[in-house]
Amino acid sequence: MDQVSLVIILLAALLIPLIMAKFKINSLPTAVMEIIVGIVIGPSVFNFVNTSDLISQLSTIGVIVLLFLSGLEIDFSLFKRWSRWPNPSVLKTSWALLWPESS
């Protein structure tokens, strides 16, 4: 049953980008659509895929890759908007978090 579950997951991962390109679905990113389909075919909704150790390890690797790719998409030039450091609002917020009774 583990092989059948793995084949279902691999087919879904292969077919989702192809279907989205065929029907020109641009409203959602491919990764988001793959997550939604994973929830639908997984044990949460239709239970087509049974969880095993291999699938659990692959899902952990997938989360790591997803977080890595999300980190690559960050535009660090947006953080340079602060003209001076330390920013007074950041200092006030930090002070209030560290010593909440003083605010």
Explain how this protein is built:
With 103 residues, the chain is mostly helical. It contains four helices and no strands. It is elongated and about 60 Å long.
Structural class by sheet pairing and helices = mainly alpha
Biggest pleated sheet: none
Could you give the count of β-strands?
A: 0
- Let me know the average pLDDT: 86
Backbone shape: elongated
* Uncertain spans: none
Order of helices and strands: HHHH
Helix content bin: 55-70%
Strand content: under 5%
| SS field, number of helical segments | 4
Alpha carbon gyration radius: 21 Å
**How far do the termini sit from each other?**
59 Å
Task: Please render the helix and strand layout as text.
Blueprint: H1 2-22, H2 30-41, H3 53-72, H4 88-98
Helix pairs in contact: 1-2
How would you sum up this structure in a few lines?
The chain has 103 residues and is an all-alpha fold. The protein has helices at 2-22, 30-41, 53-72, 88-98.
